[in-house]
Amino acid sequence: MSLLLMVLALLGALVVLGGGGLVLDRLLREVEGRRGPPRDDGGPGGPGDRVGPGEGGYTVLEGADREGGRASPDVPAPTLARVRELLALGRGVEAVRVMRDETGMDQHTARDAVEDVRRGRLG
User: Fold this and answer.
1) C-alpha span between 50 and 84 (Å, rounded)
2) pLDDT tens per residue across span 44-53
3) pTM
């Protein structure tokens, strides 16, 4: 009987800790204003340690990007060149404005596109 109580207490603790982790993750996502899986920011493991798209049992949707299933936007070459130039000068806010103005994207999509250019995933 004592062993059964210990096992039940251990299972209960795992449920509470797991649920708390899920709640904390959801709260952090809301605070950071993002959706979907955590972004790869080159943290301690580095980008090379992560499982790539289509690996690890995940299905890659044709024409979709790996974050949130959004497709890569079609950006004209001159706009990409201007955005790269602004990023090299450390003017990220202006790069987002140029992306938004020259492509008609909304603010969020333009910011994501500029981040994709910064990380080499676009253009």
Assistant:
1) 26
2) 555 555 555 5
3) 0.44
